[in-house]
């Protein structure tokens, strides 16, 4: 299972195990069980602190991880390779007594949770969002003996996926009931369980001293702005719903200059680490709700807290554009999806549609073609906007059909899941129905600026208008990245504009 290089890396990590752990292996006569058995035994051979015993879990193949002599509270139903290999490594280390790097206050909050919490998370091994959730819940299970967590590879347990009608990953169940879907941070999960946490946090934020520069948003633009501001030696804060923004959902990045290839989560981890090398106060799980100008600039948060600063940099980014047709919201996560890499494996052998003929849409169609029965691409215009090399690749695949001048008008479902969609042929005005189980929407971005309406000058598309210094129409307020009217939405451009906004804010401060 493990090549020599991976074994060497894993062996290095396993040296950090403090106390003995047991791996409880449940198998049947399937090929996947043999793979998991091989993986389990290879891991055990690398450390004298790891032992293996037979189990009788209701799911096979599965491997439970726990401290020796204790009932295991972490279980992997499936083979935790691909994106989930890191989840396995962390589970081994943490179950073996190696401390987590998670915030100490948050860890104590987890230990203090009262009640029985039995989590199950359905994932796909190609999902980039899933490991964050799996690792968060695994850590919670390590810290609190009343918490258990099982990762379930949906591709291996298709019957469960069908019974629970899971059509998007990660999907989390708590004590048998649906708990959440999509990317969730450790703090989000804990705060959802600890009902008084939000009020306590809001009260604490209200007491904070004003910043010199407050960055709203934690993506590449926000990270760059925070670093440039902090290097000036001024009090800097970052407030965001999550660190990384939309880059966390990006799979392959091949145009980040000097780095031939990386992936979104890896880049975000590097950005966060770089920001934390400076004295920057990072506040997550908070969304901005209102901007006000007084003696200081105030950012009101949805939680009820208010942060004050002498200058503000808005880097709230953008999100996937929705179709805005009947049925889309009703069947979101039930067949309507926005991440083909995450949710594609759940539609193996089924018919799907991709909405959008740009690079994202055609790349999605190509990726899905290797998994699903067939893909139909619907493009509103009479030509595809994707790069020619991608179009040629898509056209060469026998199970991809491209329909141009097609306007999606409705998502069709049976009350539980998507069963098709309606579209209008813009040339003939005829309405057609496609029988599909999944619809992947890839039609561009919408700036996260609704909360700024009637406060700043925005374009008709909702983008913040800035000058060459990143300044907005409100003195002391700057903006950067995809939320602005900068014409090209690229990571490297966002980073540059974040630096520009920070330097512009510093210039504003020294002149005022």
Write the topology of this structure:
Blueprint: H1 4-14, E1 21-26, H2 31-45, E2 50-54, E3 62-67, E4 74-77, H3 85-95, H4 104-111, E5 117-123, H5 130-143, E6 147-153, H6 158-163, E7 171-174, E8 177-181, H7 186-193, H8 197-206, E9 211-216, H9 220-230, E10 236-239, E11 252-253, E12 262-263, H10 264-275, E13 280-283, E14 288-293, E15 297-301, E16 306-314, E17 318-320, E18 336-337, H11 340-343, E19 351-355, H12 359-369, E20 374-379, H13 388-396, E21 400-404, E22 406-413, E23 418-425, E24 431-434, E25 438-441, E26 445-447, E27 477-479, H14 491-511
Parallel strand pairs: 1-2, 4-6, 5-6, 9-10, 9-16, 10-13, 16-27, 18-25, 19-20, 19-25, 20-21
Antiparallel strand pairs: 1-3, 3-4, 5-7, 7-8, 11-12, 14-15, 15-16, 17-26, 22-23, 23-24
Commentary on this structure:
The protein has 512 residues and is of the alpha/beta class. It has three domains: 192 residues, Glutaredoxin, CATH 3.40.30; 189 residues, FAD/NAD(P)-binding domain; 106 residues, FAD/NAD(P)-binding domain (3-Layer(bba) Sandwich). 29% of the residues lie in helices and 26% in strands. The protein has 14 helices and 27 strands. The strands form six sheets. Strands 2-1-3-4-6-5-7-8 form an eight-stranded mixed β-sheet, covered by helices on one side. Strands 9, 10, 13, 14, 15, 16 and 27 form a seven-stranded mixed β-sheet that branches. Strands 18-25-19-20-21 form a five-stranded parallel β-sheet, with helices on one face. A hairpin with a 2-residue loop joins strand 7 and strand 8. Helix 3 runs parallel beside helix 5. The protein is globular. The relative contact order is 0.10.
């Amino acid at each position: 299972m493990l090549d020599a290089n991976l074994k060497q890396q894993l062996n290095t990590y396993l040296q950090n195990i403090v106390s003995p752990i047991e791996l409880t292996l449940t198998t049947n006569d399937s090929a996947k069980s043999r793979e998991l058995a091989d993986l389990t035994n290879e891991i055990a051979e690398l450390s004298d602190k790891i032992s293996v015993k037979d189990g009788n879990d209701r799911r096979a193949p599965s491997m439970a991880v726990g401290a020796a002599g204790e009932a295991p509270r972490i279980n992997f139903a499936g083979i935790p390779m691909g994106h989930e290999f890191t989840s396995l490594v962390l589970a081994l280390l943490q179950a073996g007594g190696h401390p987590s790097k998670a915030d100490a206050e948050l860890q104590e909050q987890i230990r203090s949770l009262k009640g029985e919490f039995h989590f199950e998370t359905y994932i796909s091994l190609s999902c980039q969002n899933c490991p964050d959730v799996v690792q968060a819940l695994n850590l919670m299970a390590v810290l609190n003996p009343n918490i258990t967590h099982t990762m379930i590879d949906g591709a291996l347990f298709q019957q469960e996926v069908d019974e629970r009608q899971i059509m998007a990953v990660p999907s989390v169940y708590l004590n048998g009931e649906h708990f959440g879907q999509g990317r969730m941070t450790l703090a989000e999960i804990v705060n959802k369980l600890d009902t008084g946490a939000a009020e306590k946090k809001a009260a604490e934020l209200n007491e904070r001293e004003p910043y010199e520069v407050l960055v709203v948003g934690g993506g590449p633009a926000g990270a760059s702005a925070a670093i440039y501001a902090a290097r000036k030696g001024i009090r800097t804060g970052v407030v965001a719903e999550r660190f990384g923004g939309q880059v966390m959902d990006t799979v392959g990045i091949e145009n980040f200059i000097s780095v031939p290839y990386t992936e979104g989560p890896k880049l975000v981890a590097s950005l966060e680490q770089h920001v934390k090398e400076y004295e920057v106060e990072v506040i997550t799980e908070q969304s901005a709700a209102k901007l006000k100008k007084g003696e200081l600039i105030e950012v009101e948060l949805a939680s009820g807290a208010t942060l004050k600063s002498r200058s503000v940099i808005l880097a709230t980014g953008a999100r996937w554009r929705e179709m805005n047709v009947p049925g889309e919201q009703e069947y979101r996560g039930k067949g309507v999806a926005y991440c083909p890499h995450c949710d594609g494996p759940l539609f193996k052998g089924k018919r799907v549609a991709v909405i959008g003929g740009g690079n994202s849409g055609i790349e999605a169609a190509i990726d899905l073609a290797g998994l699903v029965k067939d893909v139909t691409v619907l493009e509103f215009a009479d030509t595809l906007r994707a790069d020619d090399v991608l179009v040629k690749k898509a056209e060469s695949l026998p199970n991809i059909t491209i329909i141009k001048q097609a306007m999606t008008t409705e998502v069709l479902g049976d009350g539980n899941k998507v069963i098709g969609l309606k579209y209008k042929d813009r040339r003939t005005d005829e309405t057609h129905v496609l029988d599909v189980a999944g619809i992947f929407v890839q039609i561009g971005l919408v700036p996260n600026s609704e909360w700024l309406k009637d406060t700043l000058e925005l374009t008709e598309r909702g983008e913040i208008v800035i000058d060459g210094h990143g300044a907005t129409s409100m003195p002391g307020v700057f903006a950067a990245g995809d939320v602005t009217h900068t014409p090209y939405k690229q990571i490297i451009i966002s980073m540059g504009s974040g630096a520009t906004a920070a330097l512009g804010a510093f210039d504003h401060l020294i002149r005022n």
